[in-house]
Here is the input.
Amino acid sequence: MTNPLAFEFMRYALLSAFLVGLVAPAVGVFLVQRRLALMGDGIGHIALTGVALGFLLGTAPVLTAVVVATVGAVVIELVRQQGRTSGDVALALMFYGGIAGGVLLIGLAPGGTNANLLSYLFGSLTAVSPGDVVVISVLSVVLLVTVAVVGRQMFAVCHDEEYARVAGLHVRFLNLLLAVMAALTVTIAMRVVGLLLVSALMVVPVATAQQLVRGFRATVVLALGAGVLAAVSGVLGSFYADVAPGALIVVIALAGFGVATVVGVLVRRVRRTDSAHPAEGLALLSEEATAR
Amino acid sequence: MTDPVVLLRSVSAGYDGRLALRGVDLRVDAGEVLAVLGANGSGKSTLIKTVLGLLPVSSGEAELFGTPIGHFRERTRLGYVPQRSGASTGVPATVREVVATGRLALLGLRRPRAADRQAVDDALRTVGLADRARDSVSTLSGGQQQRVLIARALTCGPDLLVLDEPTAGVDHASQQALADTLSTLVGRGTTVVLVAHELGPMHPLITRALTMADGRVLHDGPPPEPDHLHVHDPEHAHPVHDDHPPPSPAWGLR
Here is the structure.
């Protein structure tokens, strides 16, 4: 069997997958907590416009995607804070505008065809350039450090925004920061996972972890593990099977969710039977007491 | 002379230009236990949101501990217990994790130290949930979730505790537990402002009641006897009186 590490593009792809597997759930957990699980999807669609803009201007698509996705995410968050448009309508506008803008701009780009977009939509093993690896690594470290520093406050804001304001936290700033972090996560993940599937890596590992543990911190730790496992094994698998890595990563992540759900149900059933027995014992005791 | 805990001078406030509070005067001194009563839409929630600085004052003056509310920064002196709806979200959290967020007003970006963990333990003990610290909040009963939110508000040792409908949707046994917790806090000298539809077991703790209607203060004085609680509230459904036999003598008459 061929050793995937013998190829430079595979070393880049695996390193990217590892970092994305860590970052996507670490940021996604706050979106899930705020019940904005689809926000990553919306940002992914907007980033497509950014990619096409890069083709049109002849610059690196990753850079234009970072800028356009960040601006889009901030605008959406501001619209949400104003409360004029509900969150799901704001997301719907992002979906439509992002895809339409992307297809339109790529059509205007010299020699551009929609085929250029495909690797961005579903990810590609050979797409990660040395320059991309540098951008992905730097942004990943920045995002992970940010989560480590403001994670506690972000948890409080996502848990109960009103309470966080009374406690004096900078709620508006933290919400905007989360939107920017989500946008950066989408753009660093798009080369390997693809824009249409990136949101899955932000949400599915979190949902998987929720099946098995009770606390927020435990959910985060387990979700990071599930994210890395899905991303790295998906990239390795797509090397051998010659399929789009994004699709395989998401299928593996979903399979993990399925397994976790079954295990979770079984564990809860075992716990219930364990705790049911002492209760029965107590009931018997009290019946005896009444009989006397 | 110590500053009043809360001082409102002809304060008006509202949402989107619609006033829900019209020229309210209120002074709450240290150690008082004030119940704010009134029908839905009478302005009682607006009143406490204004006191907490969640809603800007559109006219009049509002002070907390002698500082205009807009400039009030001593957030650790303030404990807020919102309505229970905020207790569970998209990702499970343990009782301890939720209570620990109460300490953030003091922590900033610093990591928690032993003293912070101790404060969380103490708050959990005060509300009687120390043994549930590692359980998921969503597995708790309504009354227990309410006590989690109270514990969160206690972690910084507040001088003023503000509770929004703490007994809404809580069974009588949990209301009693809630009243016991409040009684402990009142004994420590905490000033309490709470919004309620009915006082139930909390009745003996209340030193003063404010009845609101249409954004104004209708009555300010000693708490009404349980039977007259809804006297200013003709539109409000009386679940306790309508759906059940008359309340037991224990209901607030102790």
Q: What stands out?
A: The interface with chain A takes residues 52-54, 73, 75, 78, 80, 82, 86-87, 89-94, 96-98, 101-102, 104-105, 107, 109, 134-136, 139, 152 of chain B (CB under 8 Å). DSSP finds seven helices and ten strands in chain B. The longest strand of chain B covers residues 18-28. Residues 31-55+78-243 of chain B form a domain with the Rossmann fold fold (CATH 3.40.50.300).
